[in-house]
Amino acid sequence: MDEQARILQALGGVNLAGHSVQGGMALPPPHGHDGTDVDGRKQDIGDILHQIMTITDQSLDEAQAKLVYFFNIKLSTY
């Protein structure tokens, strides 16, 4: 028995046509076949990426400010 079949058997009642797994878990539908608004999904992904980049920029700014602060303290102690 291959690994994929073993995993499916371990999950129990798997309905591949409906993409559902016993216990209320749902597998994501295949790409492009769910009928949702693709542009809306792209916008959501873009928004999430923008938030991640903003957080990253803030973290870098904070790290740089700390570096400058500690560098200035080190220079003032000599």
UniProtKB/TrEMBL annotation:
Cellular compartments annotated: Nucleus
Gene Ontology molecular functions: DNA-binding transcription factor activity
PBC domain residues: 40-78
Entry GO terms, CC: nucleus
Protein name per Swiss-Prot or TrEMBL: PBC domain-containing protein
Organism of this sequence: Cyprinus carpio (Common carp)
Upper taxonomic lineage: Eukaryota, Metazoa, Chordata, Craniata, Vertebrata
